[in-house]
Amino acid sequence: VRLVESGGGLVQPGGSLRLSCAASGFIFSNYDMSWARQAPGKGLEWISSIYANGLNTNYADSVKGRFTISRDNAKSTLYLQMDNLKTRDSAVYSCAIQLSNGLGERGQGTQVTVSS
Question: Within 13 Å of residue 57, how many CA atoms lie on the same side as its CB?
Fold first, then answer.
């Protein structure tokens, strides 16, 4: 299993970023997937998940209405569109396989910094 995130960077408050997660080594279209984040000194926070078929999504209250998760099973790629970013969104964002009992294999992550 290999999950490689990209698209992070420095953005001003109110700005947008689109994260990507390239998956390989497993049948991507068979698995529910999630995004999680970890800020310095804090624990891992689940923020969004999407079913294997892409038809159902879930969001943490902290990002609902601002972030949009999506996937392209033909490209084995997971996305996270982040709009109206806030300083509290600064963290390392990683994608993960969503298992029935929690997060499974997770990528190394990509840094998102929201600052003026």
Answer: 18
- Provide the residue type at 56 as one letter: N
State the pLDDT at residue 112: 98
Q: Is 53 exposed, middle or buried (0-12, 13-18, 19+ CB in 10 A)?
A: exposed
Q: In this predicted model, what pLDDT tens digit does every residue of 65-79 receive, in sequence order?
A: 999 999 999 999 999
pLDDT of the residue at 46: 97
Cα(97)–Cα(107) distance, integer angstroms: 9
Helix (H, G, I), strand (E, B) or coil at 84: coil
Distance CA 74, CA 9 (A): 26
b/e map 7-21, b = 16+ CB within 10 Å: bbeebeeeeebebbb
Give the DSSP H/E element, type plus range, for residue 76.
Answer: none
pLDDT tier, 94 (very low <50, low <70, confident <90, very high otherwise): very high
